[in-house]
Amino acid sequence: MKRPTIADIAQRAGVSKGAVSYALNGQPGVSEATRKRIVAIAQEIGFNPNSAARALSGATAKAVGLTLCRPARILSIEPFFMGLISGFEAELAARSYALTLQVVATPENEVEVYRRWWGERRVDGVFVSDLRDDDVRIPVLQTLRLPAVVIGGPGDTGSITQVWSDDAGAVAEAVRYLVALGHRRIARVGGLPDLLHTQSRTRAFTDVCMALGLETAVTVPSDYTGEEGGRATRRLLIGAERPTAIIYDNDVMAVAGLAVAQEMGIRVPADLSIVAWDDSPLCSLVHPSLTALSRDISEYGAQAARQLLAAVDGEQVTSVEAGTAHLTPRGSTAPPRTR
Amino acid sequence: MKRPTIADIAQRAGVSKGAVSYALNGQPGVSEATRKRIVAIAQEIGFNPNSAARALSGATAKAVGLTLCRPARILSIEPFFMGLISGFEAELAARSYALTLQVVATPENEVEVYRRWWGERRVDGVFVSDLRDDDVRIPVLQTLRLPAVVIGGPGDTGSITQVWSDDAGAVAEAVRYLVALGHRRIARVGGLPDLLHTQSRTRAFTDVCMALGLETAVTVPSDYTGEEGGRATRRLLIGAERPTAIIYDNDVMAVAGLAVAQEMGIRVPADLSIVAWDDSPLCSLVHPSLTALSRDISEYGAQAARQLLAAVDGEQVTSVEAGTAHLTPRGSTAPPRTR
DNA sequence: CTGTAACACTTAACCGATCAAGTCATGGCG
DNA sequence: CGCCATGACTTGATCGGTTAAGTGTTACAG
């Protein structure tokens, strides 16, 4: 089947290619009558402008990119990214931007992909997630002048805007809640330690625990996988000073932690309270259901997409704070048993 | 920063654009010495061919598309798609094809997206998942002559090739295993009933149960969500003829079913055995860990990607069967308690 | 009645590649 | 020596849009 081009429309309408272009793009230069006729013909023959030709004549690629730099086995179960992606889509689809996805192995690979995309003019902008200390991607994006939005932070990203959520506030809310229930020994199983948002959560966790006069504020680093989360939990639970509550940096690790506790005969929530970060259906699926720090991840993604599209349009954009995660109490938290 | 073009290279090397094109594409028409010089310059200035210009001059878009037609809340937790996507990427990245993703609401929307992509020449081919009865997408793809690979089946897809796994064999293996353990009342919580592979699983389940002389072979339809899976489980467990084993069409529903059973005081596996379909980390995370029908979803995706790329290359491709899912026994299955 | 401005177009250059066709030097052969 | 084949390029058309500049018609002011 031959793809219709503007030349076909022009021929049918008896006008020039230029006129068709003006008509379809809402530019002045054609009469209202002609415009209507042209639009009708375009409709009829199912015309879609060739994106390559458009991109070639200086216009935009009408696509943005996202690289994911986590092992496949983490991605497959981590609900966060799919939530984010569907949030992106909501905004992108409305402006018929496509989302180009690439799974990569290392941050260096991510940089290569950015360079290639930019060189190929394949995308008009990119989403950047999982910000690290002195992230190698930031300077590259700046020299390429490739519009970008960093998801998560806040961190030092120079001229690149960020969409971030107040993790410090959320962690404080969780700790305060647990303390209000009577907990005095609260531990945390953190995410990948080289990610910036993990660091800011760790700092906030330590700070608020100290501020509330708790004895300890142990954070065990982990990697968001269930296995590691379970292992970290086991390590915490066999220690001498067993915590009465654990906060996990994602839901997958929290579920794994719950399983470990049950396996060890430690009852949740009687002997151990559990708080998950990021509330996916997973948290309400398990028994007992998990108290979680919920936030609207799709909306988070939508907000990032709005920012990126604005940046692509050349608008001056500033970093914004997306909604803070809020505690959703469920069955996994209770006052600690007094001994 | 200005993007380097082949004209820049041509100028530097003191040759024409055409010569550069021949050199970089390994075509005859330039001497080995000149080719080396040109390649070196391209390397040096970090040249990437503009994908739009390439696509425009008849070449391919170097991108394939995937539409996902499930509500966001399902996608976010369903590990299947992310596994599939990372499998795609493995093959696509090797040939530097990009993956374009779009989340849509209905199969009709999917058709629109295909039409648009095709008209825009944005993709060279598409993955088709979640095949339905008399799927509206198939005839459209055929008239558009848009290369495609159907994931899942087998079904009637005319000239479009499929990558499918032997669900009937897998369901038979699960049922035989449960029967060998001594189960006589086995139920199943199925996926979306209008999906073709759900239907073939249902048929196979009924057939094998009948063949083995079981009294019943109840399938409760569901929608892959945890909530529905839990509800279906509850319905099954409060019935007069309570099953001693349940097979779930995905892992999320199985986990939900486990939670429901525990909540009702029904012990797993003593009172109820559970088998999940598709083995994600989720299955080993919960307690007891779930016996599952495992298959290598990434490899499944990789195989589909290989097929699609071959189809894009114009090769004659035939439908292939990906590896059958095999039973991975874990803690959620045991002989039923004799009364 | 003329000058000119506004409108409704057309023409053609351009984006950055690919590729068929043409050019030019060189070498081998009868 | 002339002829043809070959290699190593160059030239220029082409893909399908966008857009600046040009053209022809009409309307209206002076």
From TrEMBL, chains A, B:
Keywords, comma-separated and alphabetical: DNA-binding, Transcription, Transcription regulation
Which PROSITE patterns is this protein grouped with? HTH_LACI_1, HTH_LACI_2
Report the GO molecular function annotations: DNA-binding transcription factor activity; transcription cis-regulatory region binding
Q: SMART domains from the xrefs?
A: HTH_LACI
SUPFAM superfamilies documented for this protein: lambda repressor-like DNA-binding domains (SSF47413), Periplasmic binding protein-like I (SSF53822)
Q: Which PANTHER family match?
A: ALANINE RACEMASE, LACI-RELATED TRANSCRIPTIONAL REPRESSOR
Name the record gives this protein: LacI family transcriptional regulator
What is the originating organism of this protein?
A: Mangrovihabitans endophyticus
